[in-house]
Amino acid sequence: MKPFLLTTLFSTAVVSIGVAFSPLTFAKETLNVYTYDSFASDWGPGPKIKASFEQECGCELNFVALDSSVGILSRAQLEGKSSQADVLLGLDLNLMEAAKKTGLLAEHSVDTSNVTISGGWSDRFFVPFDQGHFAFIYNAETLQTPPTSLKEVVDNQALRVIYQDPRTSTPGLGLLLWMKSVYGNDAANAWARLASHTVTVTKSWSDAYGLFLKGEADVVLSYTTSPAYHIVAEDETKYQAAMASEGLYPQIEVAAMMKDAPHPALAKQFMQFILQPGFQSTVATGNWMLPVIELDEALPAAFDDAFKPSKNLVLPAAEVAKHRGAWVDEWLNATTR
Amino acid sequence: MFSLRTVKGLLPALLGVGFFLLMGAASLVALLRYSDWHSWLGYMQQPYLWRVVRFSLWQALLSSGISLLIAIPVASCLIHRSFYGRAALLQLFSVSMVVPTIVAILGLVVVYGRSGWLYQLFDIHIPLYGLVGILLAHVFFNMPLAVRLLLQGYDLIPSGQWRQASQLGFSRWTAFRWIEWHYLKKVLPGAFVLIFMLCFSSFAVVLSLGGGPKFSTLEVAIYQALRFDFDLNKASFLALLQVSICTLFAVVVYRIAPVNRQDVSLLAVKRYSLKDSFWAKSADALALLVAFILVIPPFLAIFDPVFSPIFLLTLQSAALWKAVLVSLQIAFPAALVSLLLGVSFCVLARFCMARRYLALLPNKIEHLGNLILMVPGLVIATGLFLFLRDLGWGFQSSYWIVVWVNAVMALPFVLRALMPVMYQQERRFRAVYLSLGVRSWSRWCLEWPLIRLSVAQALGYALLLSLGDMGVIALFGSQGLVSLPLYLFQLIGAYRLEEGACVAVVLILLCLLLFYGSTRFIGGRSLVKH
User: Fold this and answer.
1) Beta carbons of A78 and B385 less than 8 Å apart
2) CB–CB of A202 and B208 under 8 A?
3) What residues of B are in contact with residue A42 (Cβ under 8 Å)?
4) A-chain residue closest to B34, CA distance
5) Nearest CB to B109 within list A5, A15, A214
């Protein structure tokens, strides 16, 4: 009995200590880029970008994969000045003001004149790296008459809608702003009308999209580029993005470098690299978003339908930052009435 | 009062509990340093906050109540009947609580959803989104847990009582009324509080199946304050609010609940069969049927991807096995730390038992360990990180934070598994040990065969919980630290739902394997029940 007790305890301890100390990651001259997980994953654009940037800089590029774009920012804030991050990659338009306010970011010196975002790009802190528009995705086989405007999504009581919580996800926040730019002061009523045929509001994009693919809703809030994934990767054409005659709200994903970056030179080089073809050509079929510069090579035909919106709605970042709390409250009150 | 030798013997336990308290206090202080008390009054006046609190309480009450109501007859049935697949069912029960929420939700949708099995087979349509969905998910997660906790209560029933019941020709109902209930009602409050807390702070389930912000929990507000706004002030306010509500609730429950007085018997191996009847049979059948319907179909739905060709492809990816390794690298140390902490708590608690001035302490010590459940893991991790950052340790400590927070989060489950048996040992053998002068290590060796099964179960819980953890790893994950649940979320985030489902199967299989392994390896072919 006693020897057996000892062996069990001892071997458990050995196993635990063994796995605890087996090497995780160690590197020398390494550029740390904080990004969200699907960007850095094997099938995302991360590995290709890593390979081509490492060739250029002779350094090592280390992606630190966090769970969401919000996660990137809160991790950087958590670590503060002592952060190991050189570059934050994957914040979006609506998080820019909040990120700037942390005082952790440095101005970049990248020439953004060739950026193809409508209205151009002139931010001193952020370099855009991909773009897309929020859109409701539907299954063409089960939905005969898809909505053609945001108003139809809101008012068609027969339509079962899933979207994300603006308090916990960036697409949800995008919809909040989309609604605000279409409805203005009448947004509260619109939310109430939408709430009466909303199936559910999820924590994150993946929850919502998963439920939609299981057939729980007619439309789900996602991106205009989502159908391209199904076409390219699954050869499936039934998922399509609904038109919105009022215009679409953009999501522009951005990168910024840290003021206290441990490797400022490398960080600068990487910021330049973002607008190079070596980075941009990986965006479409890696991150399923559109590049922000003209590329020599055309995108796969599947992206033809990721249409340019009739009108690009966008609220000024400062206004978004100022009113976000109030607008979220408005949404809360309207949908819990 | 106590000899130096006694104190020396208690030292490791004191150190363990002390370290736990120190770390807890440190992370709390680190968070509170960023607080601004004056703004708290403003938060208190938000009507939405109180609506959320009310709903959180309501759904948690319902969830834990229903889970226990179903669990009682199921546990009774499992005790009295042996049937084919009973052991497998118990293993499955222990795994269900660690299924990643998104996987469980998709599983539930396959069964109860719009075009789900229930609808296809029976044409029954369930309004899944709203309170019903939340309750279904919570019962799926917690009813099996409740069953396991109740079975521990059954373990305390001396075989002499069963023998008598058998000799007197008790029916199942009589036995339940006169024997089982008296033991169950001591376990029920603890189980109720545990499940209540789990449901009160439930987050992903409530958001996904709740239907909208009308059904939201406090945890969402904490998540938002911490992750979206990085508002440490608000986050600490909300976390404190949550802790206060849960504490209040626990205090009330323990006040009105019967005291958990431990009984002496332990080696109750022999089971005496009671008089069987048609009613007993049908009641058992009904209980099992309900349990089956609630737990098995969603599980089958989760395992469904095994039959797709993608499953084999997923198995071949190196990233999967790397994630498995990382998960084990987190789970094993976390489980071991959790077990050490748990043992420290138990040793201290049982030392205090029935001693002058200290007799009040055991319950307090146990509650102290449970307290951790009321604080969101995210808050603990953030506080701890801030604390370590102020000490000058940054990024490199994240692995250990993940391990520690997982260990601490598993502590309540470890305590639930260890405490009853440890108390019992003390009660039964203290006099003998004292008179013979058996202490410390020799005492452990004598006790080992009697407690090893509980130790195995505790370790199993801790392993599984750390393996399935998503909250803390999401905060600190990095490229080298992608655990299995994080990998799963990466896949889903990149539209690869089917591969994600396959990874979920791997995760669950791993959970089953580890739980089975730990009960076999450490629990041994034990004399003790289950």
Assistant:
1) yes
2) yes
3) 317, 319
4) A78
5) A214
| b/e B150-162 (16+ beta carbons within 10 angstroms → b) | bbbbbbbbbeebb
For residue B471, the model assigns a pLDDT of 72
Contact A188, A180 (CB under 8 A): no
The answer to whether the Cβ–Cβ distance between A203 and B208 falls below 8 Å is yes
Question: What distance in Å separates the CA atoms of residue A20 and residue A12, rounded to the nearest whole number?
Answer: 12
Is the separation of the CB atoms in B113 and A212 below 8 Å? no
Q: Which residues of A touch B227 (CB under 8 A)?
A: 68, 70-71, 74, 168
Please state, as a whole number, how many other Cβ atoms lie within 10 Å of the Cβ of residue B419. 25
Residues of B in contact with A200 (CB under 8 A): 129, 208-212
Three-state secondary structure call for residue A130:
strand
Answer whether B212 sits within 8 Å of A336, measured CB to CB: yes
At residue A2, the pLDDT reads 45
- CA B187 to CA B183: how far, in whole Å? 7
Domain coordinates of chain A in residue numbers? Answer: 5-131+251-303, 133-250+307-335
Structure tokens at A159: 């339509």
How many angstroms from the chain centroid is the CA of residue B370?
10
Determine, for residues A74 and B226 on separate chains, whether the beta-carbon distance falls below 8 Å. Answer: yes
Read off the pTM.
0.84
- Alpha-carbon gap, residue A227 to A236, rounded angstroms: 8
- The per-residue pLDDT for A193 is 93
Mean pLDDT, consecutive 10-residue segments, chain A of 337 residues?
50 52 54 88 87 89 84 86 89 87 90 85 91 93 91 93 90 93 92 92 87 91 92 89 90 93 91 91 88 86 74 85 89 84
Residues B401, B404, B408, B413, CA torsion sign: positive
Contact map slice: A 80-109 vs B, CB within 8 A: 80, 82-84, 98, 102
Neighbours of B524 (CB within 10 A): 18
ipTM over 0.85: no
- Burial track B100-134 (b if 16+ CB lie within 10 A, e otherwise): bbbbbbbbbbbbbbbebbbeeeeeeebebbbbebb
Nearest chain A Cα to B332, which residue? A16
In angstroms, the CA B479 to CA B258 distance is: 50
What's the token pair of residue B447? 């006790």
**What is the distance between the alpha carbons of residues A26 and A39, in angstroms, rounded to a whole number?**
21
CB atoms within 10 A of CB A143: 17
Counting every residue, how long is chain A? 337
B477's enclosing H/E stretch is none
Please tell us whether the domain made up of A5-131+251-303 is placed in CATH 1.10.580.10: no
The structure tokens listed for A89 are 């990659």
Backbone angles phi, psi at B127, to 5 degrees: -70, 85
Residue A78 C-alpha, separation from nearest chain B C-alpha, in angstroms: 7
| Low-confidence residues of chain B: pLDDT under 50 | 268, 527-530
* CATH number at A133-250+307-335: 3.40.190.10
SS3 of B529, please?
coil
For chain B, the C-alpha Rg in angstroms (whole number) is: 23
Cα separation, B145 vs B190, whole angstroms: 12
Q: What tokens were used for A188?
A: 């509260």
Burial code (b: 16+ CB inside 10 Å, e: under 16) for A8-47 equals beeebeeebeebbeeeeeeeeebbbbbbbbbbbbebbbbb
Q: Whole-angstrom Cα distance, residue A41 to residue B320?
A: 11
Q: Do domains A5-131+251-303 and A133-250+307-335 have the same CATH topology?
A: yes
- What local confidence, expressed as pLDDT, does residue B468 receive? 80
Identify residue B104 by its one-letter amino acid code: A
- What 3-state DSSP class applies to A24? coil
